[in-house]
């Protein structure tokens, strides 16, 4: 790995104009991804994880959405300033995205082969026959048996796990430098989930591809990521290596997330500790820290000002007024 990040997001602000007012879906997010690294973004639904990913690829619908400020540097080039034609060349080629629901992401009227080969033809100099051969090879890489025949079938002829494998094959088709996986195992059973994630990790490791893993599952983060950013209400509230964040959580929200999941070392009768309340309405955020209405250790200062993300270790940061 080089010291220069492959992707560097700096002070990103993405907003949506609604009848209720301005929704600050992403509110000052900054993080880096190095070459060959797996970085996770974790948080409850509505925390801004997917909007961050969509912003990177310039997929925010305008109106009502808009990236209002910040930088998204990919190999030193600011994607926010890039033209639509430049972004089309980057999407699927240098940066690919695996979306949450393969059944809605795949076109039911087209064969798997056509959907896999088309982006290869668009982004490379290969002809259709060569692109189809390459697509068959990637189907084999994602462990779909009899790929030469299965590539002629339609999405409804595949199981949920196999459709997700197709999405991964599609993401790998142009051998991108960065893959964004947005909840790649949603609605899959735990066995298939583990297979998909192991496959994704192996493929990125073997190809020296970077991976941005978006999830709400802390178990997935612990096993597959090297660094993690914890998001709440459009902001990163804690970031660091997985080891630092899991073994020495600093933000009350991170502590709450970790306390609310079952552990193998717990006694059978131990109860999980939920985070009280619900995620905030982004159109009516409280003053100060957005987490303070749910925080068990809040102080008066927490209700007055938004805490900055500050260093608490060599590579560990938190946005909280509470020490320790």
Overview of the molecule:
The chain has eleven helices and twelve strands. With 324 residues, the chain is an alpha/beta fold. It has a domain at 1-82 and 212-263 and 272-324: Rossmann fold. The strands form two sheets. An eight-stranded mixed sheet has the order 6-7-8-3-9-10-12-11, sandwiched between helices.
Please summarize what this structure is:
With 324 residues, this protein is an alpha/beta fold.
Number of strands: 12
Q: What is the residue-averaged pLDDT?
A: 90
What is the CATH first-level class name of the domain at 1-82 and 212-263 and 272-324?
Answer: Alpha Beta
**End-to-end separation:** 33 Å
Note the total helix count. 11
Strand order of the largest sheet: 6-7-8-3-9-10-12-11
Secondary-structure element series = EEEHEEHEHHHHHEHEHEEHHEE
Q: Outline the low-pLDDT stretches.
A: none
CATH superfamily of the domain at 1-82 and 212-263 and 272-324: P-loop containing nucleotide triphosphate hydrolases
Q: Main sheet?
A: 8 strands, mixed
CATH level 3 topology of the domain at 1-82 and 212-263 and 272-324: Rossmann fold
Strand content: 15-25%
The 3D shape can be described as globular
Question: What's the architecture of the domain at 1-82 and 212-263 and 272-324 in CATH terms?
Answer: 3-Layer(aba) Sandwich
User: Which class of secondary structure composition applies to the elements?
Assistant: alpha/beta
Residue share in helices? 25-40%
**Radius of gyration from CA coordinates:** 21 Å
């Amino acid at each position: 790995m080089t010291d220069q990040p492959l992707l560097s997001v700096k002070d990103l602000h993405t907003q949506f104009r609604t009848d209720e007012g301005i929704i600050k879906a992403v509110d000052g997010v900054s993080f880096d991804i190095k070459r060959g690294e797996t970085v996770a973004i974790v948080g409850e639904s509505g925390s801004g994880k997917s909007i961050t990913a969509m912003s990177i690829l310039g997929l925010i619908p305008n109106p009502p959405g808009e990236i209002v400020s910040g930088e998204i540097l990919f190999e030193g080039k600011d994607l926010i300033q890039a033209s639509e034609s430049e972004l089309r060349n980057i999407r699927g080629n240098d940066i690919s995205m695996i979306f949450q629901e393969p059944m809605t992401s795949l076109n039911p009227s087209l064969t798997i082969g056509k959907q896999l080969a088309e982006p290869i033809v668009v982004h490379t100099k290969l002809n259709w026959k060569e692109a189809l051969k390459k697509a068959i090879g990637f189907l084999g890489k994602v462990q779909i048996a009899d790929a030469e025949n299965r590539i002629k079938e339609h999405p409804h002829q595949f199981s949920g796990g196999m459709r997700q494998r197709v999405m991964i094959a599609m993401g790998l088709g142009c051998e991108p430098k960065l893959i964004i996986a947005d909840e790649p195992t949603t609605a899959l059973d735990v066995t298939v989930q583990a297979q998909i994630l192991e496959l994704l990790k192996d493929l990125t490791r073997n190809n020296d591809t970077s991976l941005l893993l978006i999830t709400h599952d802390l178990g997935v983060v612990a096993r597959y990521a090297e660094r993690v950013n914890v998001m709440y209400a459009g902001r990163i509230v804690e970031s660091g290596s997985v080891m630092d964040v899991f073994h020495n959580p600093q933000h009350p929200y991170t502590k709450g997330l970790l306390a609310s999941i079952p552990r193998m070392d717990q006694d059978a009768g131990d109860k999980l500790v939920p985070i009280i309340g619900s995620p905030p309405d982004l159109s009516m955020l409280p003053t100060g820290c957005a987490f303070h209405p749910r925080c068990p250790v809040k102080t008066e200062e927490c209700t007055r000002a938004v805490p900055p993300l500050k260093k608490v270790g060599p590579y560990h940061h938190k946005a909280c007024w509470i020490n320790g």
